[in-house]
Amino acid sequence: MPHYLIAQSELPEEREARRRRAGKSSGETYAATLEQMQPGIETTIISPADDAGAALSTDRLAQFDAVFLTGSPMHVYDDSPEVRRQLDFMTQVFAAGTPSFGSCAGLQIAVAAAGGRVREMPERMEAGIARRITPSEAGRSHPLLAGRPPSWDAPAIHGDEVEQLPPGATLLASNAVTTVQAAEIRFDRGVFWGVQYHPELALREIALAIAAQADDLVEAGLADRAEDVEAWSDDLDALYEAPHDRALRWRLGVDGEFAEERLRRREIANFLSNLSALRG
């Protein structure tokens, strides 16, 4: 039975806020997604950024079949004890040689731990839907993106992005807003596959996150009024209930790659099917 380690970088108050809003912390969302995709697996959730978070040795990390890094509000470029603990954890994951996967802040943590750079986005947030993601030349044949069409949309919400990939990394996909939408990082003994978007999230979770940040989206110039954000969030929540509704798909400007759960999770499924090769 596979045993996966899930590392969430939310701090305690952020986890509780997310539970109140969406019913789960980011780590609990990942666990639920993985358990839906592979019934019978075992998952362990840890919080490396916490003061009380128990550090795991390299030998212990090597015993897991894979490590997953979640999204969070963490700013990886901040020089804080929480960020340093999270980066130290990821350095240990690379040293253990355990295959790892991350989304949003998870990608940014792996980038920074391997020597790359993360920054606040210089112009605007990417919120709700990352549009027209396209693979790089390397990405077109990379197993992380197997089955993806020449262009696709994905759930996303972030105000930070990868500025520079570390040595040993391969850019796999980009869009007009964020250059690094998907990447592979090889560092020390480990291999990491990551995306800036959120294949693990249900559309309802994205809808709730958008509604909670309505004022920020108006300030960023992505909407004129909070009421517009709420209406858009309502449509996204309705698509969660009816993913094949043609009128909702048309109104949101999405297709099955975004609307259908199985297709939205392609990158996670591809990672899981390649674990033996990634462990080498």
Automatic annotation (TrEMBL):
<feature type="domain" description="Glutamine amidotransferase">
    <location>
        <begin position="41"/>
        <end position="205"/>
    </location>
</feature>
<dbReference type="InterPro" id="IPR029062">
    <property type="entry name" value="Class_I_gatase-like"/>
</dbReference>
<protein>
    <submittedName>
        <fullName>Type 1 glutamine amidotransferase</fullName>
    </submittedName>
</protein>
<dbReference type="Pfam" id="PF00117">
    <property type="entry name" value="GATase"/>
</dbReference>
<dbReference type="InterPro" id="IPR044992">
    <property type="entry name" value="ChyE-like"/>
</dbReference>
<keyword id="KW-0315">Glutamine amidotransferase</keyword>
<dbReference type="InterPro" id="IPR017926">
    <property type="entry name" value="GATASE"/>
</dbReference>
